[in-house]
C-alpha cells in the first residue's frame, strides 16, 4: 500500500461531468452485472431458471403411458398430458423469474449489506431497479424460449400455429412478467433476514403453483381452492397461457367454459398496480430503525 | 458556512419513540481533518454517522455535510462522499475488478481501478470473486469501493474490525495516503490506538451526547492525564498515588523504603484509560 491517493485540486468546484455513457450506460452496465450475478448463483439456476423445464420433462415422461386427454368438444384432437401442462409451466417460469428470484435476491442483498452499499454510492434507485428488471426480462426470455424449444423438439409438443394465439401469449407474458417483477420487489421486504428469505418465499410460490393449475388440472380442483387461487395472479397467468397454447375446444374445461381473456387482463393489471404501489412504498436502501 | 468546514452539526436529536439515540449533539469538522468518533455500542455513533450519510432523517437540529443538508440532498451530493459501512457485504459473486469497475461508472471524476486495487493491496485478488476473499481482504475491497469515486469526505465505520495486526498497520498506511491527498475522514472505531494513530481530533460519545472533543493528547483534560505511581508497601499492600511529580514520589519512596520498592510502576494514562474512565463516569451519572 504505497500509492498516494490524491484529491483533485479542483475539488471545491468540481466539473459536473456526467459518468461514462450517462444514465443509459449506467443502466446497461447494471443489467450486465445483475445477469452475471444471476448466472453465478447455482441454486437460482436450478430452482428458478431450470425448474419449469425439469418439471415439464418429468410430467411428460411420468404420464406418457396415460395416453391423451380428449378434446372436450369431441371433434378436435386430444392432447398429451405434457402438452396440456406446457402453458402452466410457462406461467410458472414467469412467476418464478419475477417473484421468487427477486424476492430472495433483494432480501439477501438487503441483509448482507450490499443494498446499503449501493445506497452509499450515487446510484439512483432507478438504475438499481432497471438492473433488476433487465435481469428478469433477459433470464425469463431465455427460460421461456428454452422451455418452448425443449417442449417442441425434445418432447414433441405442438406449439401454437396462429398469429392470434402468439399474440395472446405475448401480452399475457409481458403483463404477467411485469406484475411478477414488481411483486417480487415488494415481497423482498417481508423476510426479516437473508437466511429466512428462501423459507418465506419458496412456500408461497410453491403453494400458488399447486392451487393455480400449474401441476394439477385446474378444472379438477375443488371450488373453494379455485376461488382461493383466483385471488392471486398465477391462476390468471396460467389461464391466459392455456388460451394461447391449447386448442380452443379446451376452454370448455375452464371456469365459465371460456378463456375469459378480459378477466385475465384485468386481474393481472390489478396485480401489476398493487405490485407497483407496494414496491414503491416498501423499498429502502437500509432497514428502518435497525 | 465557509469552504473550510466539512461537517457542521448543531443541536442534533434523533428519537425512536422514547429512546433518544442522539440527544443534543454539536460538532464541527474541518476540511482535511481526520476525526475519530469513539463510544460504546449503542452510544449513538452509528445513528449520527447514518444521519450524516443521508440514510436516516433527524428528529431535530441542523446538519450540513459539505455545505448540503443530507435530508434534502440530491444525487449530485452523493459522489462527493465515500462510505465504508460497518457491515461488509459477503455474498457478492462479482470479482474485485468487476465491482470496482461498476461502481466507478457512477462517479463523475473517479480514480483509476488499478490504482485503487494497488492502494489496498489486492493486486493478486483482482480477478477473485468477492465471496471468496478473506474477511480482511473483503474489508479492503470495501475501502477500495469507498475511495474509487475520489471522495472529498470519507466515512470509515469500524474499518479494521477483524484485521490482524499487520493488516491494520497496512490499512493505516492507506488512510495516511488519503490524508496526505487532502481527504476529510470521519472514523469510528473500537480501537483506541487506531484513533490515536490516525485522528487529528477525537470525540467521545455516550448516551447520544459528545462528552468531550479534542486532540488525542488533550482529551479528558489535564486531570485525567496525571501520572499514576503504584507500588507494594512493606506489608504487601497495593499503594497508588496520582501525582504531577512522579519522579519526586519515586525518589522519596526509594529513600524511605530500605532498597527497591516492590512492583514499582509509573503509568501515564493511555487514551484507552481516559476513555474508559469517561464512559464509566457517564454511565454512573445516568444510573
Residue-averaged pLDDT of chain B, rounded? Answer: 88
Rg of chain A, alpha carbons? 22 Å
pLDDT average of chain A, as an integer? Answer: 88
Number of self-contained structural domains of chain A: 1
What kind of oligomer do you see?
A: heterodimer
- Largest interface: which pair? A-B, 44 and 54 residues
Structural class of chain A: mainly alpha
CATH superfamily of the largest domain in chain B: P-loop containing nucleotide triphosphate hydrolases
Q: Which range best describes the helical content of chain A: under 10%, 10-25%, 25-40%, 40-55%, 55-70% or over 70%?
A: 55-70%
The number of helical segments of chain A is 10
Give an overview in words.
The complex is a heterodimer of chains A (290) and B (287). The longest helix of chain A has 31 residues, at 81-111. Chain A is elongated. Chain A has a two-stranded antiparallel ribbon. Chain A has 290 residues and is an all-alpha fold. The two termini of chain A are 35 Å apart. Chain A contains 10 helices and 2 strands. Chain A has one domain (21-282). Chain B is α/β, with parallel strands linked by helices and 287 residues long. Chain B folds into 2 domains: 31-42 and 75-215, Rossmann fold; 221-286, no CATH class. Helices cover 32% and strands 27% of the residues of chain B. In chain B, the strands form 3 sheets. A 6-stranded mixed beta sheet of chain B has the order 5-6-7-3-8-9, sandwiched between helices. The longest helix of chain B has 16 residues, at 165-180. The radius of gyration of chain B is 23 Å and the shape is globular. The mean pLDDT of chain B is 88. Chains A and B meet through α1 and α4 of A and α2, α3, α4 and α5 of B.
Amino acid at each position: 500500500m504505497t500509492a498516494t491517493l490524491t484529491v483533485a485540486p479542483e475539488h471545491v468546484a468540481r466539473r459536473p461531468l456526467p459518468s461514462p455513457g450517462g444514465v443509459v450506460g449506467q443502466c446497461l452496465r447494471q443489467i450486465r452485472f445483475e445477469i452475471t450475478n444471476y448466472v453465478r448463483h447455482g441454486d437460482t439456476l436450478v430452482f428458478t431458471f431450470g425448474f419449469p423445464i425439469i418439471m415439464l420433462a418429468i410430467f411428460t415422461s411420468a404420464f406418457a403411458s396415460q395416453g391423451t386427454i380428449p378434446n372436450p368438444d369431441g371433434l378436435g384432437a386430444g392432447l398429451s398430458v405434457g402438452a396440456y401442462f406446457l402453458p402452466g409451466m410457462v406461467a410458472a417460469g414467469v412467476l418464478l423469474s419475477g417473484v421468487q428470484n427477486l424476492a430472495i435476491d433483494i432480501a439477501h442483498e438487503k441483509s448482507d449489506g450490499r443494498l446499503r452499499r449501493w445506497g452509499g454510492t450515487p446510484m439512483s434507485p432507478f438504475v438499481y431497479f432497471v438492473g433488476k428488471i433487465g435481469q428478469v426480462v433477459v433470464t425469463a426470455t431465455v427460460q421461456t424460449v428454452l422451455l418452448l424449444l425443449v417442449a417442441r423438439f425434445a418432447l414433441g409438443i405442438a406449439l401454437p400455429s396462429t398469429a392470434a394465439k402468439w399474440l395472446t401469449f405475448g401480452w399475457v407474458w409481458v403483463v404477467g412478467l411485469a406484475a411478477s417483477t414488481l411483486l417480487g420487489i415488494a415481497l423482498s421486504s417481508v423476510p426479516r433476514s437473508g437466511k429466512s428469505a428462501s423459507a418465506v418465499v419458496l412456500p408461497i410460490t410453491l403453494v400458488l403453483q399447486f392451487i393455480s393449475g400449474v401441476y394439477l388440472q385446474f378444472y379438477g380442483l375443488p371450488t373453494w381452492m379455485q376461488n382461493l387461487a383466483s385471488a392471486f395472479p398465477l391462476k390468471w397467468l396460467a389461464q391466459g397461457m392455456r388460451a394461447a397454447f391449447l386448442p380452443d375446444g379446451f376452454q370448455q374445461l375452464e371456469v365459465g367454459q371460456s378463456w375469459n381473456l378480459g378477466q385475465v387482463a384485468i386481474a393481472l393489471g390489478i396485480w401489476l398496480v398493487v405490485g407497483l404501489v407496494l414496491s414503491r412504498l416498501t423499498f429502502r436502501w437500509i432497514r428502518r430503525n435497525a | 458556512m465557509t469552504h473550510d468546514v466539512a461537517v457542521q452539526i448543531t443541536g442534533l436529536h434523533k428519537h425512536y419513540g422514547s429512546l433518544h439515540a442522539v440527544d443534543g449533539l454539536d460538532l464541527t469538522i474541518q476540511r482535511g481533518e481526520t476525526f475519530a468518533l469513539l463510544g460504546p455500542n449503542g452510544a449513538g455513533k452509528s445513528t449520527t454517522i447514518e444521519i450524516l450519510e443521508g440514510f436516516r432523517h433527524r428528529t431535530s437540529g441542523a446538519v450540513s455535510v459539505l455545505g448540503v443538508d443530507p435530508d434534502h440532498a440530491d444525487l449530485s451530493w452523493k459522489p462527493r462522499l465515500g462510505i465504508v459501512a460497518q457491515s461488509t457485504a459477503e455474498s457478492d459473486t462479482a470479482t474485485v475488478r468487476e465491482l470496482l469497475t461498476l461502481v466507478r461508472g457512477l462517479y463523475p471524476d473517479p480514480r483509476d481501478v488499478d490504482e485503487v486495487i494497488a492502494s489496498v493491496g489486492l493486486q493478486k485478488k483482482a480477478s477473485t470473486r468477492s465471496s471468496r476473499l478473506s474477511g480482511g481482504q473483503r474489508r479492503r475491497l470495501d475501502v477500495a469501493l469507498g475511495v474509487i469515486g475520489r471522495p472529498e469526505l470519507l466515512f470509515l465505520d469500524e474499518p479494521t474490525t477483524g484485521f490482524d495486526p499487520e493488516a491494520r498497520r497496512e490499512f493505516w498506511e492507506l488512510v495516511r495516503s488519503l490524508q496526505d491527498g487532502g481527504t476529510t475522514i470521519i472514523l469510528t472505531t473500537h480501537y483506541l490506538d487506531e484513533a490515536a494513530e490516525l485522528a487529528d481530533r477525537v470525540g467521545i460519545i455516550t448516551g447520544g451526547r459528545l462528552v468531550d472533543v479534542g486532540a488525542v493528547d488533550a482529551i479528558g483534560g489535564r486531570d485525567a492525564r496525571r501520572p499514576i505511581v503504584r507500588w507494594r508497601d512493606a506489608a504487601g499492600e497495593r499503594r497508588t498515588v496520582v501525582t504531577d511529580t512522579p519522579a519526586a514520589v519515586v525518589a522519596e519512596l526509594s529513600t524511605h523504603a530500605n532498597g527497591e520498592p516492590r512492583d514499582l510502576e509509573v503509568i501515564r494514562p493511555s487514551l484507552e484509560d481516559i476513555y474508559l474512565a469517561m464512559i464509566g463516569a457517564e454511565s454512573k451519572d445516568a444510573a
